[in-house]
Amino acid sequence: MGKVLVAHGEREIEKLHTLVQQAKNNGVLDLAFLSQAELAHKAPQIKASMGVWSPSTGIVDSHQLMLSYLHKLSEHGGQYVNNTRFVGAQFDGHYFIVTLNCDGQLFNLKCTTLINAAGLFAQSCAKQIDALDPRFIPELYYCKGQYFSYQGPHPFKHLIYPMPEQHGLGVHATIDLAGQLKFGPDTSFIDELDYTPNEQAKARFVSEIIKYWPNLDGSRLQVSYCGIRPKLLKSGTQDFVIQDHSVHGIKGLINLFGIESPGLTASLAIAQHVSKKAS
Question: Which of 109, 112, 212, 257 is most deeply buried (CB count within 10 A of its CB)?
Fold first, then answer.
């Protein structure tokens, strides 16, 4: 599908150059700066001082990806057990005795490797592992982000991304597999889990979108859905945190903290990384 990154003014242009350099440092070598003519072709109606083309950017059908993972799990003799809550784990120096609650019934299992990849609930699960020193459990901050869908025709063939904000990638334009255009997410720190969309955010979305798409018809924006990121910081740059025994000293325990939305795209790479730590 491809993505166009757009920048306005000297400050954002500088940020765009920094992003391109970081991509090169990470082994992404196919980014290309666009002339104004190329920008107009790749992203019709987009207003920007400078643009960069990312041809290898794509989108993921998350539902089909999860079904594929379940199929692979079954192929390798694994089991997916839903409606089950992690109650706690005791470590005896070699084995973890894990207590689970399945539809009100408690049961235990014994394992030598315990991987905590509970997303928004990773910290609360980690606190129930008796051998883990609390100082290795980072603070958790809920950061809500919502999307607005765009009803009707639009000129875009590729994803459109403004320069990232402190806590997210900015209100960008995404096209799903059905061709539906949506904008988001925004960022808002909240104290409790709440997935209720906020219709009042529409004005803020309009003001952000028209910075790069002046022809936006705001009446076509409709509130869509929300997600919540497991932030570890309220300011500064955050990366994923993956801890093994070299960090906390407990052989066989791997904790994953702060795995927010890019974690879906990076899930296979994360799995390979965790697999090496677990071997």
Answer: 212
Q: Which one-letter DSSP state was computed for residue 74?
A: H
d(CA 10, CA 20): 15
Q: Is 234 helix (H, G, I), strand (E, B) or coil?
A: coil
Q: Dihedral through CA 244, CA 246, CA 252, CA 257, nearest 10?
A: -10
Give the H/E segment covering residue 165. none
How does pLDDT run across 240-261, given as a tens digit for each residue? 999 999 999 999 999 999 999 8
Is 97 within 8 Å of 89 (Cβ atoms)?
Answer: yes
Q: What sign results for the dihedral spanned by CA atoms 228, 87, 102, 92?
A: positive
Task: Give 92-139 pLDDT, tens digit per residue.
Answer: 999 999 999 999 999 999 999 999 999 999 999 999 999 999 999 999
Mean pLDDT for all residues in the chain: 95
Least Cα distance to 253 among 137, 129, 119, 139 occurs for: 129
In this prediction, residue 35 carries a pLDDT of: 97
The single-letter DSSP state of residue 27 is: T
CB count in 10 Å sphere of residue 244: 18
Dihedral, CA of residue 126, residue 129, residue 130 and residue 135, to nearest 10 = -20
What's the pLDDT at 11?
Answer: 94
pLDDT for the residue 178:
85
How far is Cα 157 from Cα 53, in angstroms, rounded to an integer?
A: 13
SS3 269: helix
Q: Where are the alpha helices (DSSP H) in 108-261?
A: 122-126, 202-209, 245-248
Question: Which neighbouring-strand residues pair with 150?
Answer: 181, 221
Angle at 217 (CA atoms; ends 212, 219), nearest 5 degrees: 135
